[in-house]
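[Meeting: bench + compute handoff]

Bench side (C.D.) handed over the final construct sequence. Compute side (W.E.) agreed to return the predicted structure before the next meeting so the bench team could plan truncations. Sequence as handed over:
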Amino acid sequence: MPSIDYIAEEYVERAARIRSNPAHGLGLPRTRRRDYVFLTHEHLRDLAAEAEPSRVFVLLLGHTGLRWGEATALRVSDVDLARRRIDVRRAFSDVGGHVVLGWVCHLLYRRSGVDSCVHD
């Protein structure tokens, strides 16, 4: 998969801003896939117990798969406990060293189920 820099340089070249792409033909190393490590339910429960007073927050992250920026941007209106649903509409992100609250792109807008471990 081409890097963002390569794509940007191709665009600039096509727009006739530069004569040729300096990265064209450059053999870039392939990115290696990371081996993901997943916690078992037991490990997550133990981690949450050690994380008091943030136990519920740790369970929320672990059981729903929400990212830190998504979870910290949640509002009460985003959580529907009766339907066990969380609407992810906003997220905090780092932009140039500043934490910024922004809207999640409508293509990335998602709902996450609330596990009974978190709900109860």
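W.E. noted at the follow-up: Residues 4-14 form the longest helix (11 residues). C.D. will use this when planning the next construct.
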